[in-house]
Amino acid sequence: MHRRGDQSQPEIPVHTEPFEDGNALFSISTSTVSRQINKWFAVSAWKWCTNDDDCGICRNPFETCCADCKVPGDDCPLVWGQCNHCYHMHCIIKWLNSQQVAQHCPLCRQDWRFRE
Predict the structure, then answer these.
(1) Is residue 11 part of a domain?
(2) Which residues form the domain of 106?
(3) Is residue 31 part of a domain?
(4) Residue 108 pLDDT more than 80?
(5) pLDDT class for 105, splitting at 50, 70, 90?
(6) Which CATH number belongs to the domain containing residue 61 in this structure?
(7) What is the DSSP string of 34-69?
(8) Residue 18 falls within a domain, yes or no?
(9) 15 to 24, 57, 79: CA distances (angstroms)
(10) Taking a C-beta distance cutoff of 8 angstroms, is the pair 113, 81 a contact?
(11) Deepest of 30, 67, 78, 115, by most Cβ within 10 A of its Cβ?
């Protein structure tokens, strides 16, 4: 039993023999603990750098694709207007093509111009 403030660590019995097949990627050893990693599974995530989380037209998150696309990413890019609003490219193109008089941003109603 350790008292509060006691900095000593209990000894942990650990099997320190290497695996018989020798297929470890690498080993980590200390005086009391030994670990061996046999498999490594890398995981990653990505996110668009935007001020908003969702497309203002289709309401899908920017990490997903628009209704016309099947896979998010470079085939369904984001575009920004001069007004700083961001949309899926396919969503804003459909929106602009449906406007008969003037092409306006769906959120702020300013004249739509693509940001360079």
Answers:
(1) no
(2) 49-115
(3) no
(4) yes
(5) very high
(6) 3.30.40.10
(7) EEEE-------------S-SB-TTT--BTTS--TT-
(8) no
(9) 15, 58, 56
(10) yes
(11) 78
